[in-house]
Please model this.
Amino acid sequence: MVCERDYIYEFCMLVDMLIKNIRHLEVETVRARFELSRYLPPPHNVYLRAELVSDLSGCYSDYTAYHIFTRLFHDGQDPMNSTEWANNLLSYTQGHGGWPWNGGAK
Model:
């Protein structure tokens, strides 16, 4: 018989995979914007580079379920709002960066 704890764990596994997918899509969005900015004439290239990381993912910290997930899987740290992730994502704004699936290792 499956207990409630198993359901919570499976739910958290799903959320963790969704977070990884969101982070991958954020990286691809920044990469595409950066590449596009290389081909735009001034001042449009500058405008786009200023907006490389705007309007990516939303904030999930208002959701109780997200707090449970971060507490159980990430020691209470928000994987979408960590300094490490922000620094990794910002490295893509200069046209380089590590692959997000391995914690941003270059």
User: Anything to note?
Assistant: The radius of gyration is 17 Å. Confidence is low (pLDDT under 50) at residues 99-106.
